Amino acid sequence: MKSLSLVLAVALAGSLAIAAAPAEAQIKVGYTLSATGPAAALGGPQKNAVALLPSEIAGQKVEYIVLDDATDGTKAVANARKMITEDKIDVLMGSSVAPTSFPLIDIAAENKVPLIVITASAATVVPVDDKKRWAFKVVQHDSLMAQAVVEHMKKAGVKTVGFIGFNDAYGDGWYTEFEKLATPAGIKIVAREAYARADTSVTGQTLKLIAANPQVILIAASGTPAVLPQKALKERGYKGQIYQTHGISTPAFIQLGGKDVEGTIFPAGPIVMADQLDDANPIKAPALDFIKRYTEMYGQPPAAFAAHSLDATRLLAAAIPEALKKAKPGTPEFRVALRDALEGAKDVVLLHGIANMSPSDHNGFDERARVMVVIKDGKWQLLK
């Protein structure tokens, strides 16, 4: 698909207008998303969600520019450079997966443009150094989600686990964080395998996992490609519990996996179980509102990934008023002020958690940013 540049002006009530960029637009937000390619199950919903973003923030008109990087890091870099040099964006958002997001860190730092990352890998913002001081993240760290998985395994008496994940930053990051936590918890990883997002067979890896005879297996993948190893395991008679990561938080995973993904346990952002959250949870109301508006617009509920686009803008909206006190949009001074304001954002209610940023923490999430979920009867159910 050719890269698509859209200017979306949407009232908070949900009305949508698509037109040429208004001359008076004052704040420019650039998104590079993986709307096509292997990560389309993530980037597609994220792109769709841009149509639900506010047309004004803090009294300033906002212009959204959306480009498709086709799950290609080189294309993501080209998109970012174009939006920075030609469109003069004030903030960069993206991308949908770790391999397309890491290159953006250098681009953001080089041009001193704030970057809000919408992928899981903690390494995109940790540690906060001279480059990553320009990067912020609105997706839960894999370490935070891995902790929930290990805690569940420990309570279930798990002693051995097999691991299979993407052969890229997502899978590697998950393995690193899971291993750190599993070993002290008395859980031994007896086999580790990997596969590519675009692979169509994992027969060899599956046979090795089963031969290691683990009590449970953890699959560290995202979107519909996460179904492949689980189907292969079921077809070869694996009976143990299968865990996945928050990367499967999309209805497409259940639709493609069918009976083979029944009983899967995984950590997820609160929006996934919004209707089952306690009424006192501050995330519940905005999450349900987003789900309602997205469903009305597209005829189906959103994948959890769609909320990442909204969360990026909610975080941005919390920072803009402070930045406006120091400079005008479209200037280098405003971008610096915006970076500083993002770093100082406190108690920002996002659909995936409550963000409290600091100079040493550019994610700002705690345990409120996760719930444990099981797939039962083709639906997500909250594990109490």
Summarize the structure.
With about 375 residues, the protein is α/β, with parallel strands linked by helices. It has eleven helices and 17 strands.
Q: In words, what does this structure look like?
A:
The chain has 384 residues and is an alpha/beta fold. It has eleven helices and 17 strands. It is globular, with a radius of gyration of 20 Å. The strands form five sheets. A six-stranded mixed beta sheet has the order 4-5-3-6-7-8, sandwiched between helices. A four-stranded parallel beta sheet has the order 10-9-11-12. A three-stranded antiparallel beta sheet has the order 13-16-17. The longest helix has 19 residues, at 306-324. The N and C termini lie far apart (42 Å). Helix 2 runs parallel beside helix 3 and helix 4 (142-155) crosses helix 5 (169-182).
User: Can you tell me the overall shape?
Assistant: globular
CATH superfamily of the largest domain: Response regulator
Radius of gyration: 20 Å
Instruction: Please state roughly what percent of the residues sit in beta strands, choosing from under 5%, 5-15%, 15-25%, 25-35%, 35-45% or over 45%.
Output: 15-25%
| Strand runs, count | 17
Distance between the termini: 42 Å
Succession of helices and strands? EEEHEEHEHEEHEHEHEHEHEHHHEEEE
- Number of DSSP helical runs: 11
Assembly type of the shown chains?
Answer: single chain
CATH class of the largest domain: Alpha Beta
| CATH topology title of the largest domain | Rossmann fold
Cross-sheet strand order for the largest sheet:
4-5-3-6-7-8
Average residue pLDDT: 92
Whole-number count of domains = 2
Instruction: Identify the CATH architecture of the largest domain.
Output: 3-Layer(aba) Sandwich
Largest sheet: 6 strands, mixed
